[in-house]
Amino acid sequence: MKRRHFLGMAAPLGLGAALLDAPAWAQGGSSHAVRMQVGATPGGGTDIVARALAQAMEAELRRSVVVENKPGAGGNIAASTVAQAAGDPNLLLLAYTSHAINPGIGIKQNFEPLDDFTPLSLVATSPLLLVCHPDLPVKNTAELIAYARRNPGKLSMAGAGLGSASQLAGEMFKAQARLDIASVPYKGAAPAVQDMLGGQVQLMLSNVATVRPFLEAKKLKALGVSTREPLAAYPESRPIAESLPGFDYRTWYGVLAPAKLKPADAELLERVAMKAARSDIVRQRLSHEGLEPVGNTSAEFREFIVAEMKRWDVVAKTTGVRVG
C-alpha cells in the first residue's frame, strides 16, 4: 500500500493515528509504548491520578501508556529520569506539588524543574482538609485556634512526608495563627492517619481521599478546608481563610514531558493531555477521590508552576522548613 494512500485512510482515526505516524514517536521501539514516570508508591493519590490519566491517554493515542512507579526523594527520582530524556516524546512525568516545593526547601536536584521539562497540562487539584481526632473539643478552625492558644505545647500536627504540601501548609497554619503546636513528620499519609486514629497526634492537613472513609466513620473530624472555596461534600468545614485571611493552599497533579521536544510532538502531547484530563474517565475517577480535574493548556500550566514555586518558596522561608 502506498504511504500517501495509507495516510489518507488513517486520517479519520484522529489524533492517535497522527501521533503514531510522527517520526519522533518511533524512538520508543517496536512496542511504541509511552512510559509515565510516577514519583510515588502504587495505590496512593498520585498513583491513582497517573493510572486514570494513562487510561484516558491510551484512548487518544491508540497505544499503551505504561505507569512506572519510582518513589523517593520527593518525586525527584522519577523527575530526573524524564529530565535526562530530552527530546523523547515517549517518556512522561506525572508531577505533583513537591515538584514546586523541593527547590525552596533545599532538596538537591540534578535538573531544573522548568527548563528541563515541557509542561503539558495541569490534570487536577485537591484542597486539604484540616482534620482532628474526634476527642478534641473543637468544631471548627476558630475554636481550634482558641483552644491551642489556651493550651500551648499540648497539641501535635502530623505531616504526610517531610517537605510535603501537607507539612508545609501545616507549618504555615501554625505560623499565621501564632500557635505552639508540635510538628510530627511521617513517611507518608497512611502512617500519619494511623497515629491520628490512635490519638498519638491530634491534627493534620490531609487530602480528601486519604481521610474520607474515616470522616464518614466518625473516626476523624473535619474542621476546615485549605482553599478559599468550601467543599460541596463538607459544607460545614468552612475555609481556614475565614479565620486566617489569605490562607489558600492545595495539592496538584500535572503531566510533563522532557524538554527539547519537536514542536509537532509538543503540540500533539499537549492536546492529548488536555483532552485526557477533561475526559469522563478521569473526571469520574478523580471526583470520587475528592480531586478537581482541570486540563489546562501548556502555557497556563507553565505559569501555574512558576506561581507555585514562588508561593512555596515564601512558605519555606516563613516557616524555616529545610530538608537539604
Summarize the structure.
The model is unreliable at 1-30 (pLDDT under 50). Helix content is 40%, strand content 19%.
Write the layout of secondary structure elements.
Blueprint: H1 3-10, H2 15-21, E1 34-38, H3 45-61, E2 65-69, H4 76-83, E3 91-96, H5 98-101, E4 117-132, H6 141-150, E5 156-159, H7 165-177, E6 182-185, H8 189-197, E7 203-207, H9 208-216, E8 221-225, E9 250-258, H10 263-277, H11 280-288, E10 292-293, H12 298-319
Helix pairs in contact: 3-10, 3-11, 7-12
Helical proportion, percent range: 40-55%
| Rg for CA atoms | 21 Å
Distance between the termini: 59 Å
CATH H-level name of the largest domain... which superfamily? Bordetella uptake gene, domain 1
Find the count of extended strands (DSSP E, 2+ residues). 10
**Low-pLDDT residue spans:** 1-30
For this structure, the CATH topology of the largest domain is D-Maltodextrin-Binding Protein, domain 2
- In terms of quaternary structure, the protein is single chain
Please indicate the percent range of residues in DSSP E strands (runs of 2 or more): 15-25%
Keywords: Signal
Pfam family, one: TctC
Family: Belongs to the UPF0065 (bug) family.
Protein name: Tripartite tricarboxylate transporter substrate binding protein
